């Protein structure tokens, strides 16, 4: 697990401490408070303590591991780890040295591989939530701009249990009313976190702008994705209604759009004047007025906070989402360059072309590497459509790379994700699966086989599927899959300990009156206690689980 993740941290505890779990504009506010208190030792210490306590817990990955130390008052001893992708490069335009930073923070909430963690949990936190921040600054620090956008799984209660199929079916796990409540909860959290910047002394001079949340829905318009996308939009509209001021905007599907809608609906809202991104300019030096007094320039005029946020999603929030976010970031970069440079025109913004070929290549590489890193952690391979991000068009090489990535994802999802989830749970301090494992092995082994049988039946779901893989067709026509919801492959663990086995039985009966034959099929699942449990008199527990005999026999007849 540790090999996959890149963990970043900042250990400077002085006035220049930068908290990686917070965006730049929040760090800017905290820095102002610390520098204003620097002349007073007690105030400076209080400001530093405040900064340490303002971490965004979503990106504080070792918070559970360090909880005991922090509860004992040793918070200053804790180094916060943030799972993220970080890259930067220097470039020069108009004889001005500039820096570019791209930082993508990954939330620890609802964390896990894609077919194990989907949708939202009970707290409204979604799977694969990533906050990407693009920062452009002058080397001398006189002008700076930062832009954030987010991605995350569709905030409904849905799942996609892994099977041997390439694309497992999508399953909706809640009612429409529950989905409406979940969608509203998640979107209101988004408004609270991203459309209401931190308070600062300079903030009082601004008239608050209307908060805006743009939802870019990139899900397919066919099959299970179409059903899921329709449920998402239905929940969104019913959660807010047409008159709600916090009602998010939505954009059309990526695969059927030439990005015209992006230009018309979204990009105009991403200007600095409308709170589309954070910008800071140091005021020029004070100048003497004719009457001898000094003209103090208004510092508030050089500070604008971001109040607009874009939330992008496809079914995985990986491939198409990364292409879309890179396109949006490219347009915003042009606006950021216009802000940090004295003489820069955005006349080519409609073509989304950057002013220098070197900058173009560096920008493409940064976002392509960002997509690859996030995809490896959630899906098990590099991003697909990565050639679009790197070159701006689809290529044969890119299609071949997608085929390789597809195979890597298939292997990871079916054979490695369970172990990866257990490692994540251990690192994050989660015990939801291990308690259930202990309950299955120890607490529920009863002298009364009937109660044990009932417990196992309630917690197991047996799925019989036809075998389609050519390398398995010669051996069998169907396979049995044992599913235990919200657990980490307990069957595999018990089977590896030789404590679980199963056997298929097919029985033919003949009606004496009509002479017709009928067939029944069932699976005997045997659970064996440990040798210590056997010494206490506990015996094997066998579950007789009926399955669809007609389906098995019709599959067998095709052979």
Describe what you observe in this structure:
The chain is 37% helix and 20% strand. It is an alpha+beta fold. The strands form 5 sheets. Strands 1, 2, 3, 4, 5, 8, 9, 10, 13 and 14 form a 10-stranded mixed sheet that branches. Strands 17-18-19 form a 3-stranded antiparallel sheet. Strands 6-7 form a two-stranded antiparallel sheet. The longest helix is centred in the last third of the chain and has 33 residues, at 396-428. 32% of the residues are buried. The model is unreliable at 42-47, 199-209, 297-301, 432-445 and 555-559 (pLDDT under 50).
Task: List the topology elements.
Elements: E1 7-8, H1 24-36, H2 41-53, H3 67-71, E2 82-93, E3 96-106, E4 130-138, E5 143-151, E6 158-159, E7 171-172, H4 176-194, E8 212-217, H5 223-240, E9 249-251, H6 260-266, E10 278-281, E11 287-288, E12 294-295, E13 303-304, E14 308-313, H7 319-340, H8 357-378, H9 386-391, H10 396-428, H11 432-443, H12 449-459, E15 461-466, H13 470-473, E16 478-483, H14 490-496, E17 500-510, E18 517-527, H15 531-535, E19 541-547, H16 549-557
Parallel strand pairs: 5-14, 8-9, 8-14
Antiparallel strand pairs: 1-2, 2-3, 3-4, 4-5, 5-10, 6-7, 10-13, 11-12, 15-16, 17-18, 18-19
């Amino acid at each position: 697990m540790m090999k996959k993740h890149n963990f970043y941290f900042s250990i400077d505890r002085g006035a220049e401490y930068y908290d990686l779990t917070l965006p730049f504009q929040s760090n800017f506010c905290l820095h102002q408070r610390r520098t204003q208190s620097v002349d007073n030792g007690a105030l400076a210490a209080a400001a530093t303590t405040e900064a340490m306590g303002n971490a965004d817990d979503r990106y504080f990955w070792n918070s559970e591991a360090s909880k005991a130390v922090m509860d004992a008052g040793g918070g200053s001893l804790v180094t916060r780890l943030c799972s993220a992708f970080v890259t930067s490069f220097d470039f020069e335009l108009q004889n001005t040295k500039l820096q570019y930073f791209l930082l993508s923070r990954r939330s620890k909430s609802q964390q896990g591989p894609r077919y194990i963690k989907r949708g939202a949990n009970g707290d409204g936190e979604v799977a694969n939530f990533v906050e990407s921040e693009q920062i452009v600054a002058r080397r001398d620090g006189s002008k700076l701009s930062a832009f954030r956008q987010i991605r995350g799984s569709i905030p409904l209660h849905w799942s996609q249990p892994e099977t041997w199929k390439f694309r497992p079916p999508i399953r909706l796990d809640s009612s429409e009313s529950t989905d409406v409540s979940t969608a509203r909860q998640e979107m209101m959290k988004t408004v609270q976190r991203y459309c209401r910047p931190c308070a600062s002394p300079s903030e009082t001079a601004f008239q608050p702008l209307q908060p805006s949340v743009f939802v870019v829905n990139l899900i397919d318009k066919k099959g299970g994705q179409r059903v899921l996308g329709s449920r998402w939009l239905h929940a969104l509209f019913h959660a807010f209604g047409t008159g709600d001021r916090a009602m998010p905007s939505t954009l059309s599907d990526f695969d059927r759009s030439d990005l015209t809608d992006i230009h018309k609906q979204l990009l105009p809202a991403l200007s600095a004047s409308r709170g589309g991104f954070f910008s800071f300019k140091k005021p020029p030096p004070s100048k003497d007025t004719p009457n001898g007094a000094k003209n103090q320039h208004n510092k508030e005029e050089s500070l604008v906070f971001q109040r607009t946020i874009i939330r992008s999603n496809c079914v995985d929030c990986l491939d198409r989402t990364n292409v879309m976010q890179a396109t949006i970031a490219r347009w915003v970069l042009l606006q950021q360059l216009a802000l940090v440079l004295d003489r820069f025109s955005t006349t080519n913004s409609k073509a989304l072309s950057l002013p220098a070929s070197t900058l173009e290549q560096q920008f493409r590489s940064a976002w392509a590497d960002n997509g690859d890193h996030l995809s490896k952690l959630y899906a098990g391979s590099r991003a697909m459509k990565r050639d679009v991000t790197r070159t701006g068009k689809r290529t044969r090489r890119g299609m071949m790379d997608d085929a390789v990535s597809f195979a890597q994802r298939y292997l990871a999802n079916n054979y490695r994700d369970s172990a990866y989830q257990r490692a994540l749970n251990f690192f994050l301090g989660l015990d939801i699966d291990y308690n259930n494992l202990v309950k299955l092995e120890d607490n529920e082994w009863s002298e009364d086989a009937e109660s044990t049988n009932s417990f196992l039946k309630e917690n197991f779901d047996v799925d019989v599927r036809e075998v389609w893989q050519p390398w398995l067709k010669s051996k069998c026509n169907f396979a049995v899959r044992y599913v235990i919801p919200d657990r980490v492959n307990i069957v595999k663990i018990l089977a590896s300990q030789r404590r679980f086995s199963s056997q298929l039985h097919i029985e033919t009966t003949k009606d004496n009156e009509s002479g017709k034959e009928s067939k029944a099929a069932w699976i005997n699942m045997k659970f064996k206690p440990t040798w210590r449990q056997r010494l206490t008199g506990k015996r094997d527990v066998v579950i007789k689980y009926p399955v669809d005999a007609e389906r098995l026999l019709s599959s067998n007849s095709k052979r």
